[in-house]
From TrEMBL:
Family membership noted in the UniProt record: Belongs to the cytochrome P450 family.
Keyword Metal-binding among record annotations: yes
Source organism, top-level taxon: Bacteria
Name the record gives this protein: Cytochrome P450
Keywords per UniProt: Heme, Iron, Metal-binding, Monooxygenase, Oxidoreductase
Record keyword Metal-binding present: yes
Any one GO molecular-function label of the UniProt entry: iron ion binding
SUPFAM superfamilies, A to Z: Cytochrome P450
Length: 397
């Protein structure tokens, strides 16, 4: 058995995968030790990652795998996805996912595009009116996804700032387990109160739809409604809110922004390439559990072992992506797995794509002269073990 290596691996920039990941990809699955739980196997190749993500041999339910919760390999003391559809296997996962798929169909997401465009235009109007320089993170990058997901769910505008603090706590590596659990409790209590209000006053938003499923159907419990809403809020806010400033930073630093401003038709392909090139998760992914003995790239894994998939390394595998280390905004054949793969693929992928397309197209069209207002190496970074983004991104135009 290999001696576990400390994980996450060090890197010289928040948005650059560690060079040790390339070494690991050549070696096949390697043993790593995270801050919490037992050691895990780290998977870094594109082929292996797709296999683990899609094979029923690798589950997400630690109880089903016979692994105690405190032994689950993780980077925080509490799994931010615990007790949601992300940590269940069929048939429970199939039942829960069915309700969310009804909301996040590609057609339903496209229906949200005009409203998202109005939010983006309003935020940019305010930024332009205040004049340069502006912090793109604060006035645009964070605000757009929060407004979109809260509109979708039906969260009152006055309460939206509370969710930023709650989702930050869920992903924190600095808070104690008691503090994280307290934030989860506060969020669940709030969501429970909103759901109870929808019982008395039905609405057409997502909370209202899930409440109707609970009352009229036979599939959802009150706890499941709250847990689904918590997962959607965290995923719908933090990941997209991080990627908007991440994408703009790289585009401005490396010259890609001018190409989009000259040809906004490149935006859809550029979003896909940026999703491939820029890690959606800082390092690693949600832990999988080996349910029966299996061989992976010549390494024998045993039932009860744990597996961590490094999506950023898989998305830079030269065997799957020619010139994989180059950001090519015109790349067409781009089967990246930034949103995962298989049954646990992100249900909000279509929504995230649409928001990112609207964000970049709106900026490039309305502010073609946008540029950094500070040297790129002086941009401060907000980093935890799940997401990384500029703490501030000062821009001018």
């Amino acid at each position: 058995m290999q001696e576990p290596k400390a994980f996450p691996f060090p890197t010289d920039h928040a948005l650059r995968p560690s060079p040790l990941l390339s070494e690991a990809r050549r070696a096949g699955p390697v043993r790593v030790q995270l801050d919490y739980g037992a050691p895990a196997w780290l998977v870094t190749s594109y082929e292996d990652a797709r296999h683990v993500l899609s094979s029923p041999v690798f589950g997400r339910d630690c109880e089903r795998a016979g692994i105690p919760a405190d032994q689950v390999a993780g980077m925080t003391p509490v799994d931010p996805a615990s007790r949601t559809l992300l940590t269940t296997d069929p048939p429970e996962h199939t039942r829960l996912r069915r309700f969310i798929f009804r909301t996040f169909t590609p057609r339903r997401v496209e229906d949200l595009r005009p409203g998202t465009q109005k939010i983006a235009d309003r935020l940019l109007d305010a930024m332009v009116q205040d004049g340069p320089p502006a912090d793109l993170v604060d006035v645009f990058g964070l605000a757009l996804p929060v407004e979109v997901i809260c509109d979708l769910l039906g969260v009152p505008a006055a309460d939206r700032p509370r969710f930023t603090a709650w989702t930050d706590a869920l992903l924190s590596t600095e808070l104690t387990i008691e503090e994280v659990q307290a934030s989860i409790g506060e969020m669940n209590a709030y969501l429970g109160a909103l759901a109870a209000h929808r019982v008395r006053h039905p609405t057409d938003d997502l909370i209202g739809a899930l409440v109707r499923e609970r009352i009229e159907g036979d599939g959802l419990t009150e706890d499941e409604v709250n847990n689904l809403l918590r997962a959607l809020l965290a995923a719908g806010h933090e990941t997209t809110a991080s990627q908007i400033p991440n994408f703009v930073f790289l585009l401005l630093r490396d010259g890609g922004y001018a190409r989009l401003a000259a040809d906004p038709g490149l935006v859809p392909a550029a979003v896909e390439e940026l999703l491939r090139y820029v890690p959606l998760i800082a390092q690693g992914s949600m832990t999988r559990f080996v349910l029966e003995d299996v061989e992976l790239s010549g390494v024998r894994l045993h039932a009860g072992d744990q597996v961590l998939i490094e999506l950023a390394a898989a998305n830079r595998d030269a065997r799957a992506f020619p010139d994989a280390e180059t950001m090519d905004l015109t790349r067409r054949d781009n089967p990246h797995i930034a949103f995962g793969h298989g049954m646990h693929r992100c249900v909000g992928a279509a929504l995230a794509r649409m928001e990112l397309q609207v964000a970049l197209a709106t900026l490039a069209t309305r502010l073609p002269g946008l540029r950094l207002a500070q040297p790129s190496d002086q941009v401060p970074w907000h980093m935890n073990r799940f997401v990384r983004r500029p703490r501030r991104l000062m821009v001018t135009w």
